[in-house]
Amino acid sequence: MIMESKNRRGIFMREIKKTEPLHSQVYHIVKEMIMEGKYQPGERLVETKVAENLGVSRGTVREAFRMLTKDDLLAQKENSLFVYDPEAQDILDIYECRKSLESLSAKLAAQNIAAEQLDQLEQIITESKKALALPDTQELTSLNQKFHDTIAFASRNKQLIQLFEVINAKVLYIRNCILKERSESFAVLVNDHEEIFHALKERDPAKAQEKMEAHIQRSLKVANAALNKQMGDPESSLG
């Protein structure tokens, strides 16, 4: 069982299980810390420090870092590795890809979705409304991801699902690192989810595609506003 301990940075980290490949565990642990913002965008990661914190070899960490670099969650500059720090154009590019992929997934899901998947979506929306009332931003983010994952799998298109998973980590990273202070936007996005759900339940591919495209475009505007606020430039725009 992976336990938690507090390291020198004052961060609770999962401890290594000796029963699983170490480089895979380190990969998932560091990825989780990046996704949760425990390592900040642009922060330099040093093999020796991570290895010392986790009690593993530098070679193990190096292999995990290689996997994270392949995911584009770490970027190499000269001889150092830094946590992915997306620029405005990166976010625009990711959301443009996401809009095309998820609009298609909604269209296909309207034709192929199973009854139990519709039930799952309805339950996600119910739980999202409860989380909104608290509000619980972390739970809303998790439920949001489950909603989009369910629709992608309901498309039953293996190639689309693979492409969806390629950008999924970056989308979640952007949500966690850029949209974490935008809790006021969740009410609108949950309403969008409800409209998408009804289109899927009606088995209307064109409507489901239209609603999903509008939803992703709205999400892009939220990301844009959050990024501009961080940059201190309310007049700038992603495009």
UniProtKB/TrEMBL annotation:
Endpoints of the signal sequence: none
Xref: InterPro entries: GntR_C (IPR011711), TF_FadR/GntR_C (IPR008920), Tscrpt_reg_HTH_GntR (IPR000524), WH-like_DNA-bd_sf (IPR036388), WH_DNA-bd_sf (IPR036390)
S-adenosyl-L-methionine recorded as keyword: no
CDD domains in alphabetical order: WHTH_GntR
UniProt keyword terms in alphabetical order: DNA-binding, Transcription, Transcription regulation
A molecular function (GO) term: DNA binding
Coiled-coil regions, chain positions: none
Name the UniProt record assigns to this protein: GntR family transcriptional regulator
Organism in which the protein naturally occurs: Peribacillus glennii
